[in-house]
Design brief:
The structure is a homotetramer of 468-residue chains. With 468 residues, the first copy, chain A, is mainly α. Chain A is built from 18 helices and 4 strands. Among the domains of chain A are: 103 residues, Fumarase/aspartase (N-terminal domain) (Fumarase C, Chain B, domain 1), CATH 1.10.275.10; 75 residues, no CATH class. In chain A, the strands form 2 sheets. In chain A, strands 1-2 form a two-stranded antiparallel sheet. Chain A has a two-stranded antiparallel sheet with strand order 3-4. Chains in contact: A-B, A-C, A-D, B-C, B-D, C-D. The interface between A and B is large, with 92 and 92 residues.
Chain lengths: 468, 468, 468, 468
């Protein structure tokens, strides 16, 4: 028993950690073996009588995982010692039943299917959490569709936006990734093929037992039942085609990457100098006894940490996948397991954190407004000159093409002297060209958010159905 | 100026390298700027008269790319100096036209859209090459659906397969990845949003010019024309939502990973000790003057190399994406560019190589058979004992449960003594239990390929339509 | 609670897994806290009386790691809940002693130092195993310094080498990496600095208590004792300078990468078609009941798997390190922990596997010779023409510059016709130019290994002292 | 001619880009071939007369790199077509000289050595720039050794530090990495070994020509001259031992990672809300015509971008290195080239940027002080209670162990009410316990920087000699 999560603040103590634990994976392997027995019973290739003994033996709590781990290196997988023990347990109750266990299967059938099962189980909660998150972000975006703040380009003050608009972009990324992840979940396949993927054992069996039928049709029909038992998709063998693994891994990574963007923005906004957002409070979380003013944004830190871990896990998985060989790889396949599990675990933790963070994120519109004002009217210079330059030229104040220069020089001068910009422009431009009031309106950043609110509404309407 | 591909055997001299070159990217940026002008003309926000000057100026051959590169670091992007030059060129022909260039846009609109355009252009050829490859692999699988060879598990001899079956697994992975890539291509979006993604400039413009309309409806309608001009999808702004980039990158990587599996298998099979396959010959390729017996499998080496490069590029892209912030990231965005281009380039090269390699792969069935026989009848022991043990037990030769042991001990002994296995079994087992002929049939590896041929047919039927 | 290693055949059941377990890491954190108390006692800033209570409480077996893990996310590290519990345990025995625990320290001081302690403890065994490995490889290289086999370039037959020469290259890489790793171990630093690295608490303390001294001299002197207690190096604070972490990680990775090369070569050589090497046998390892002829090279598979995992861990670590910020990073630091632990664990497992694999690697010189002969005399063509061309020209058999062509055409013809090459050359070349015997000598591949044996001796002499 | 750097703001237009260009690499390959000829002349194995023809032909400006690139894929390396052309050029001038070119060498000898030569040439400037940077940082640290600012833990306000202290940590990381990189540069080896690394050609040659000597001693002696000609280290063959490559790559990455930390800190500090630092101004850099208030921190953005790119390049390199096989790898080796070049290029650009950024970084001490004050006296609570609690207990104001609680409650109350904290404490604590003045002194953050200035001095003294 090695790891509890002490070095993994991302997932220590989360539901995802349990759902992807070695215990959960080993139980999934037993579930797969049991499902295969049930499929045989249903298909008439095994007697009903074996059912009870198999089900009873397929409970991971009666196995010693430390011992299984110790035997894992010998065959470079954990199924081999688990299966030996499973056969013993079944045989102890029902000697003949043992022969039906794992019949015609290979380690890879069980391990790959078990990983898909773990994905399906963890994935279900991930999708739920992501839908909750998207719902919460939708409400937040809606609420702040008009809350003005500074938009940042290259992380520098650029133009005003609304906070709701920024939230809508978090939402769109998370929802896009979430939907793709959900789609991937609905396609998770069982693995079934025997030693080299061609179902030799069962083809021989059916040729002998049911010579009147095409043996592969029977193999496929029996596999369909197996898949049905597990709630997975009945698919052609993929021992040597790892696309199902890469697609799942990529879909998971996209969720984590979308969450990281949100976290990065929160981490900037909670800095004391910004103070635009605060993470939800929870007693005992994020404080520091030595530094009582601290409220560490631990949820966002964990999300950021998660994305960094996931990047490494995906690299490991890719490095494995690209060294795939023959009918079963010599190392490449093995590298997928921990990496895929790690990705699912991190993604699950991310979904849990997102759901908590977006439920209680505190927003400080006054601070947003204060920060927006740091550059004062400089922020509006582009807008003002875009608006006034043509008017100035149209009134022949200056010749064509010189309007922008005139307007900008008046503005720069006024701002530098600390004069009221609207008034100065009103004074300096010909009477009747524009009113001071009109200029003041154009200088109001809350009117300079373009389509921010429209985008909020559009994004919300796009994902409203999915999120509920 | 810098790179010709001398350190990049994967893509040096390929069509993909040209389609993703800096020249191609810069031309794509000009194409995007030109398309925006055309969209304005069509939408009635710019006069038709600007068209000619813009089109003429949007030809990259009249720009000095070395100079543009030298100016690139100042704004951390190449669009800024390119745009300055473009405006100069347009103004030289038609002074007023210059004002319509890039109107209401931001660098990110152009760069992101240009990258999507490069993806669309490169992608079209990639899909064509992948379809050709899948077609060729389908024919190869069909032709060798019954060509027996050894299947390998953990890269060790396991059970017989047909070469066609192995090819079917290459095919399935490449076709799955290719179809997903093709789908991604059909969704490539334009980027449009201005400084912070809210189209402030155009909202102001339409409020002033067409106050009777919802300005964002006009913005969207004009964007639709822009997308149409470029053959891309009109989508909501994604400045701060990088899912379109990760999805494209992942789809590309999956193609490369699927190809790597094929390459790894070819690299094993062309070794002199295996000699089961040879790469297509081309004068001047893969030979060595110092070592005349060499025929280096350079196509497969390049595919393997490609997958390793792509793993690094994807890591760089991920590292960038997860540090995305605010309305435009401060470095994370910049890291996507070269990584995405690199992925497209490598994927394009991979598709070209695949198409050539699978067109001319030489297959040596006799060598496959010779290698299969290395372990002789040992390979069939499992099958024989699975078949005979129940018969032996049914005939009360041994008690229940001991059949396998008896059969195996007879076999091991016979093989060790070099005796004919079928004959020995016939002699040692009770008369009438099985005929020597029946045993000989069971010892024929070509009858022990399970559903190999069925799988070949099934996979071929799944992708036949797509590949043609 | 979560992971036993079932998905990690690389390290499940290894000593390294235990030495890097959460238990070991948590014990190391307690060891660091205890060492700090001992340092205070030695330095006179804490009374001796606290010693016993602290030592007693610093035994990880009396802590509930599942509970600690559950509390880890709240502060995004495990030290916070561990410390609270430690203080309780100490206070229960000796109320005043609790105040001396963690005095002036910050979480990062303890966690970073604990990781270095884990590195030192695991590292000691790694170095021992690597020295054993290098010693064993040295003997193997020596034994096979003249055992001829085919050398491979781009994995294709190139020229003869000796197996000992190939071993010498494994040895050199492993020894180079091992020595660098050992050097890194001797420089592992303690971390000491308090909240922001400037030792504010202790500076205040010493200013008040020992105003006559430079407080930082006292801080440093006390830190020296702390380092001495732990067997680590007393170093300037490195909270915000992660070079000690990257150097350690890189040194570990190099060991793993060097091992992967060896594993890749073994995996090729154990294939049935090559059969030049076999992994040491161990009952129960690497066999397959379904496929009795199999002896899976699980040690090499685990080494290959290890390198792929390590590549991912290093990527995660790098992704963390490059997002380092301020006096303590918001996520980047957290990503280092599991990655560094993972690298140490994998490196430890690799060293154990290497030591076992190189102790019992079986070598089959006859198979090496058989494989070498696949291309027959083609392999020697270059040598023969290099040798004879000048002689032929010198004897005016052909004009200058045509010698190579003549020799090669004679050779190609002879080989193609299946004639004896030496005899044919002897017949076709002018009498007295060279003897058939001399040609036969030149055609002997065992005389065509260049400096192979010299390189073996040179490499062995370079590392002999280190390995013993 | 594909890439000018338009997608690579990190290195476009830098000196490093030129030093690592394909032109520079190809010239390095020619330099290696030329050096080998000179070594032969010096060693007496080639006539002096060949020198001129070789030198003349070894000028890359007379080669067509586009053509070489087009031929690169055929042999999967660029040396093959380059060498053919080189031989032609030499032969055109001096027919016999052509035979001495590349004598006994293999592609890998030239390519590996050329990459080391590129590293040496680029590296020299990198070290110079890093020394300049360290010198500049030393001066900056010194100047601001007492400039108080807030220190951040988990990027949140923690305790005061001096800006000089933060700079000292940048300095230490960059100097550590720089020194290690410099050391690596002094060990860059030539590669020399022929087809499979055993110098067969030259061993045969020397056996024939100088039978009285040990041929490998002559091979080594001649190699020493070759190394001397190139300014590299004469080393044992490392075709199959890639540790020299990983060590160089790791050393380069460490420089980039150290720089990224500095960049991340600058990016936070230049935000308008912080405004503690500004990047040096340069006309035309970092501005935005649409947003005149912007001064984009492009140097830091490029440094951050660099680290992300380098992470990907290192992953590619690692993925290649761990798939190393036999005497020359089938793809793994090829993946090293572009990755290593990329790392050197990025590292060179980073060094240039660092040197410019640290020369002109603007520091705003008033803003630092303003930000520090955001949390006001909350920041000092820990310090005050650490100081007063024992005094309060010693004066029996409260019982032992309750001092901290009393002091903290007085403080919290005072701060909450907006009262003067020193005065309130003076009032509420017994007369004579402490003076208000003493409390005020303890509340001065500039006196609460622990050993900041000492650390600055210590770090500066550690690297002063190296940096100049």
């Amino acid at each position: 028993m090695y790891d509890y999560g002490l070095l993994n603040p991302v997932w220590a103590g989360t539901r995802a950690a349990e759902q992807t634990s070695d215990v959960a994976f080993a139980q999934a392997m037993l579930d797969v073996e049991a499902a295969w027995c049930r499929a045989q019973i249903r298909f008439g290739t095994a007697p009903e009588s074996i059912g009870q003994a198999v089900e009873t033996a397929c409970d991971i709590t009666s196995y010693d995982l430390t011992e299984l781990a110790a035997k894992t290196p010998d065959g470079a997988n954990a199924l081999i010692p688990l299966l030996a023990e499973l056969r013993n347990k079944v045989a102890a109750q029902h000697p003949e039943a043992a022969g039906y266990i794992h019949r015609g299967a290979t380690s890879q059938d069980i391990i790959d299917t078990a990983l898909m099962l773990v994905a399906a189980r963890t994935g279900e909660h991930i999708v739920t959490d992501l839908k909750t998150t998207v719902g919460q972000l939708g409400a937040l975006a809606d609420q702040h569709a008009e809350t003005v703040m500074i938009g940042r380009s290259l992380d520098q003050h650029a133009q005003p936006i609304s906070f709701g608009y920024r939230v809508s972009q978090w939402l769109e990324a998370i929802a896009t990734a979430g939907q793709q992840f959900e789609t991937t979940l609905t396609n998770l396949p069982v693995q079934w093929g025997g030693a080299v993927g061609t179902s030799t054992w069962w083809v021989d069996y059916f040729k002998a037992e049911q010579p009147e039928h095409d043996p592969m049709q029977l193999v496929t029909a029996q596999r369909d039942m197996f898949a049905e038992e597990l709630g997975l998709v009945s698919a052609s063998v993929w021992h040597a085609n790892r696309m199902p693994v890469t697609q799942l891994a990529h879909a998971a990574f996209e969720v984590v990457a979308a969450a990281a963007k949100l976290a990065n923005d929160v981490l900037t906004a909670v800095q004391a100098e910004h103070a635009e957002l605060a993470e939800p409070n929870k007693p005992g979380r994020g404080g520091s006894s030595a530094m009582p003013h601290k409220n560490n944004p631990v949820l966002s830190i964990r999300l950021k940490n998660a994305a960094q871990e996931a990047t490494g896990q995906l690299t490991a998985l890719h490095t494995g996948v690209i060294s795939n060989t023959a009918e079963r790889a010599d190392g490449g396949w093995h590298s997928e397991w921990a990496a895929l599990r790690g990705l699912l675990r991190v993604t699950g933790a991310v979904a849990e954190i997102l759901s908590e963070l977006t439920a209680g994120l505190e927003v400080f519109p006054q601070a947003m407004r204060r920060n927006l004002d740091i550059h004062g009217n400089y922020l509006l210079l582009g807008r003002i000159s875009q608006w006034l330059a043509p008017l100035v030229e149209a009134h022949d104040v200056v010749e064509k093409g010189k309007g922008k220069q005139l307007v900008e020089s008046i503005c720069q001068e006024a701002i530098a002297s600390g004069d009221d910009l609207a008034q100065t422009l009103g004074d300096r431009l010909p009477d009747g060209l524009v009113s001071v009031k009109a200029i003041e309106k154009m200088l109001d950043p809350s009117g300079y958010m373009g389509g921010a609110a429209t985008i909020v509404a559009e994004v919300n309407s796009r994902y409203r159905k999915w999120s509920t």
